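Is guanosine-5'-diphosphate-alpha-D-mannose placement plausible here? Inputs below.
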Amino acid sequence: NFSSCGVILDNLTVLSDFAGTRFRPLSFEVPKPLFPVAGVPMLQHHIEACAKVPNMKEILLIGFYQPNEELNRFLANVQQDFKISVRYLQEYAALGTGGGIYHFRDQILSGGPEAFFIMNADVCSEFPLSEMLDFQKKHGDTHSFVILGTTANRKQSMNYGCIVENQQSNEVLHYVEKPSTFVSDIINCGIYLFTPEIFRHIGAVFQKNQQDMLLYHYEGEEQTNGWQRVEVIRLEQDIFTSLAGQGKLFVYKTDRFWSQIKSAGSAIYASRLYLNQYHKTHPERLARNEEGGVKIIGNVYIHPTANIDPSAVLGPNVSIGTGVTIGAGVRVRESIILHGATLQDHSCVLNSIVGWDSTIGRWARVEGTPSDPNPNDPYAKIDSETLFTDGKLTPSITILGCNVNIPSEVIILNSIVLPHKDLNRSFKNQIIL
Ligand SMILES: Nc1nc2c(ncn2[C@@H]2O[C@H](COP(=O)(O)OP(=O)(O)O[C@H]3O[C@H](CO)[C@@H](O)[C@H](O)[C@@H]3O)[C@@H](O)[C@H]2O)c(=O)[nH]1
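Reply from A.M.:
I modeled the complex. Tokens:
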């Protein structure tokens, strides 16, 4: 009887490759999961949601990124703010979403958790974790696993893990990762509730990989990095596909906000979703119009250390980082301005990310093209845009890497500017190396 047994949550694992290849040039400066979304590092939203779950004891971050000062500072800050242990575990190589948690299974299980959440770092969500726990109690037995699912449109569903459910029991009957033809419009959100039992299933795949390796070895086939290959296990293809239809895997569908954060463009979209959520969760983080102050339109986050001229107009969906300086008559809309940047008088920034310590000259205009989901389709998701279509740069948000200088009175449109560049003229649809 599950309801009589108290769920003790001990661990949360956030998976991340911390590399963020589609996030360049911004991920040169900061690992993608620490990139600020709605004013705080992307992962802080996950951590905050976990810290709210009763009996949550510990949060583990798993990645293969070399820890640095910034990560250590982040860990210290969140532990202090949320009064919960948060540790980073570094993989020796990319072990895949299942291999990473299997490698660190002793650490995950060390506090004797009855259940734990696993989350992809590159998603933004309302994280209905308590609802997932309630759902688990109502469905299946104590050992059932829960995937958070949401509805996508037919075309976009194929970019995600697709789930066919039993509509009465919500059991996952079929799971196909990024199918090439339509399977289902219910997609995997990359947020799971597992019990320690999951490691038995991952262990079985690990053992099969091991046997296969030995077999190939005896047949004389060259094995480079053999062990590593044995340990690489993908939760989706290697585990969920075979668990489907076995009465163990269930889908909890949410219609609350959810999005992937793959590209810089999707970070602006995710910021918009989180800023909107702040009305409920953190109204103190939203800037307000005050007598004689800067004009705020819609949802705007301003770090208290930013220095903003009262004649500037900001919003909607703007996040201003630490120590940013904004001059007179500046207009910013749908953009993220990272710490230390300066927007000189009368400059205009639309649909852009302005990198750390960059400067935009007077009367300059930095503008991108938003890649938002179709507003007329309730199930549309943001497209993880490819950089090029038909050999041309796809019009997208403008990104200035760190320490870029834009002169006065120029226009930078739909462009990506690599760090430490001093531009001397206008650019349109270009990657400036
Ligand atoms: N630690 C670690 N993390 C990894 C590794 N490989 C991927 N990740 C992390 O695992 C998450 C999933 O990334 P991918 O494996 O690249 O999959 P995806 O294309 O993002 O698709 C996944 O997420 C979708 C939802 O956003 C799902 O729909 C889909 O089914 C799948 O789970 C990301 O946060 C990524 O950083 C690894 O070797 N080690």
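Short version: The chain has two domains: 2-260, 285-432.
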